[in-house]
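hey can u check if this looks right to u? its 417 residues, i copy pasted from the old doc so theres a chance i mangled smth
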Amino acid sequence: MTSTQLHAPVARPLHAYLLLLCGCMSVLAAVVIAPILPKMQTHFAGVERVEFLVPMVLTAPGLVIAALSLFIGAVADKVGRKRLLVVALVAYAAFGVSPLWIDSLHTIFATRIGVGLAEAVIMTCCTALIGDYFRGAQRERYLALNTTFASTSAVIFIAIGGALGEFGWRIPFGVYAISLLLAPLTLLLLWEPAKRRAANVVQAPEADELSWSARRQLGICGVTLAGGIAFMAVQVHIAYLLQSVGVVSSAQVGLIASLAQVAVVVGSLLFRSVLRRGLSTVARLGLSFGIVAGGYLLAGSAYSPEQVTIGAVLTGIGCGILMPTLQVWNMNTLPQSHRALGTGAWMAAFFLGQFLTPLVVVGLAGYSGGIAAAIKVMGATLAPVALLLLLQASRQRQAGASLIRKHDKNIRPLGND
């Protein structure tokens, strides 16, 4: 053990919770302005293709994360995670609050690209530092809490965005300044992990090392891309769905959107029960996509705010099961030698799906007759997919049971020779 290792700071829950709070900035970027999108679109009504640009203001950071998630980790290894994290938190605030004073939709879109860059750095460095500071069960616990923090903070940020939206569409952008409170705490409380010497990190190869399959990874990323679109479609367009049934209050939109985020938390908690029941990945995908499809169909054909709310809640529960299903599926197929690459590919696929969401929904709306009709079409598409997945899971389970019975039948009792 080196002298540096002997005098290294001891990581405590305080450090983990600070990193988890910093990680919540990625959720803030995605949800706090969702309730004010219709008002923003009205303000910029004279801008060409405003119906595409305004929703993309919300999802543009996801495109940056999709593009850069494979590369930022390498930069953090070279220049240090803590330094990058502090700079990114400051940049996040600077880019995030800029629309308070900007009156050009295209310039606002450019600032959102800056938010996405800062967000990508924050997510990468926070996750890496949790991995650096903690080991074993502690590390797994704090990484799992990341989902809980994200879903819970989404509920809070949507409600805040809706309430502040009553004072004008610009006001919610001021919430991005919260990262300026976290930057000095990060500077004072966190430390740069000492780099381990090569001689100290040589490990024997894992006995159960999985083989790397690019085709399998591509398939997982394809399903994850669809999952990213499914996850964001109602979140991005909840205000439009409610507007179609007569709800124009930003506060009310924010409250209903918050309920949908609570449903995501509920779904993520139900995921543990699903795991305990021993359902396969195919069955979990079928279950989650089926619940999302039901929520889409209800929200897309709604005639009242209550129906939209129930549909959004159903969608949230389904997405709460879907997200950890996709993550566990991906992680369980990755050998250690390709784990970072596979994780980066998964993140890129998911956030690309988020970015493409308004393009898909608005594109469908042009053919189907509106946002609500587009959501209904998406539900009608997902429903048979979910049914096919559940049927496939059932066949797999029956085939497995048949093999077990055949194996048991072929085992002769002792003493019959």
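Residues 1-6, 196-208 have pLDDT under 50 and may be disordered.
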